[in-house]
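User: Batch of two.

Assistant: Item 1 of 2:
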Amino acid sequence: MDPICHTLVGAVLGQTGLERKTRYSRVTLIIAANLPDIDVVAHAMGDTASYAFRRGITHGIPALVVLPFLLAAAVWAFGHRRPPASTGPPLSFQGLLLLSVIGVVSHPVLDWMNTYGMRWLMPIVDRWYYGDTLFIIDWIAWAILGGGLLAALRVSSEHVAWFRRPACISLLTFSAYIAMNYAFTQSAERAALVALAEDPPVRLLASPVPFDPLRREIVLEYPEEYRFADYRAFTGFAQRQRVVDRGDPQHLAVARTSLDGRRFLHWARFPYSLITTRDGSPKLVIADARYVPDIENPRLDGFAVLTLDAPTD
């Protein structure tokens, strides 16, 4: 998910009663909820480095063990240099560690919800896992979490049962929203398989879209092409006319001879290729149909597109 969603989750968690565990509880939860994204520095090394490192070593299970200890130790060291507070809970390393674990774990769980995917077992096993449940920027998630945070800041819940606290209600509603979207994705995939029973795809993806949780864009993989469809809550499955040729399989073999090609193809879920000309020289362009489903006007640069020098033969 996007940084706003992660930050809101950390902030809302800090209004559920967890803030009574230790000093600096709220700031610890907010930092922890964003901490695995320290791998964003990979962007500075180029697009393919980003594909290789993002949502990997800082998001995997080993990191989920190490990062909370590092954050708790840093906040504890900072807190001991500050004068003790006259009110509120005392500084507690155990409390900081608990909050760090909760915040850090929330991050990859939410990232797994997207079509981009998550690598839970890094650096032990470099394998992608996909939830295909939420679009990476979800305004409804913002509204649920932001509304809960505003209500929690305005309404005292010190002596209120946990399930009646605005922050807890917000998190429960958000969880229900995630469950609804997961079920809708499964419904879209089943509807596609039923509609295409006589010509079933090799694989398919029912992808969430921005602004509309009751719609899925479907990528259908066939041996030589990708087809596309839509699934809507009230109108059902409808296949589009667009077809994307997957290209010559040897193109991908050529791409794998380069580091950039190997990185991109390990990340790409539905890759396709074409040979085109740019500045008078032939180029091998590889794109991922998850994000670039248009072969007629291919982008030679940008997200989900890799451009390499084409082989002379």
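Item 2 of 2:
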Amino acid sequence: MAGSSTTVFLSFGLRIRNQGQLDALLASGKTVSASEYAARFGPDPVFVQRAVATLQAAGLHAIWRSPSSLIAADGPAPAASRLLGVDIENYRMADGVTFYATLDQPHLPAAIAAATAAVSGLDDYHRDRGYAVRPGGLIPVDVLSYYNLKALRDAGLDGTGQTIMLPEIDDLPNMTDLDKFASKFGLPAFESVLTLRRDPNWGTPEKAQGETALDLEIIHEVAPNAKLVVYLSSPDFGHSDRAFDQMVSDHPGSIISESLGSCEPDTPSGARDNYAAIQDRAVALGVSHFVASGDNGAYTCGLDQDPAGSFPSTLPSVTSVGGTTVFESKQGAYFKEYAWGSPLDQSGGGGGASQFYAMPAYQKSEGPTRTR
């Protein structure tokens, strides 16, 4: 069993009020203000404070600040084990990577269950992976041509007044590459539009791998005057849920561009439930959320596993975006494009049916038809 030197980072997803009314709101396509959401659907503060007190009495450092959808509770593994009735162990992989995890389902004490519906962070295994444009991607001229954006740009639509949030798990070591990119292509300096958000409560991102920079560069090409806000977190669910929750609180009515995902069947139910609940709040607050569908075709979980989709792109309440391969004409202009895929190594745009979420109504007209 993991000892007191192992710190666990738990995120308890809070129950909402008036679930039926929220479902009706989401189905209608209408939105509400942050204050109206808190008044109609936000968690009951009395129940939340009781849950926080119970967590603190168990030896965990627990915090909740409205309008968050989560209670963050960190502390020694033995305390979490006793509270939730699980056996938390330390593991070491063949490559030397260590992590903590439990194979048990947590049992929430009554005072906690009254306020919370799920818990993530019972392991810190890094499941989230980045899905980003490969090196040598599109330059601004390509973007305007391939996606027929020139008419929009000529009409003055360049991202002004919009905020785009990016959840990321790899760091930006410095601004040098971004500054060179903006200068080379005559784009506004990143310092005028970019904000980096960090918080110890969200863990430590991985070392720079270039994916965060690529995401920023592509978006800056499309919408050069949009405000860009990057939320950097650790790749484990307990920490990344907290960063996601904060961005929804910070910028209602904005846009999320997410190039992250994990094997859907391998995503713990507590993590899925927490994320889905925060996403429902995002939809109610008018947030548009675009998620990469993955870059391993049908085999998000690996070639030795059954076909599966990538979470959170499988959520019905997000827009899942797949990659394409673009072909130029001899004149260097857009010619045609196909869904990206390589049969030899099974790479390509992800997709497929979710194992947990039913087909939403808006897809049924596009679903498979039966013939007699």
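The mean pLDDT is 91.
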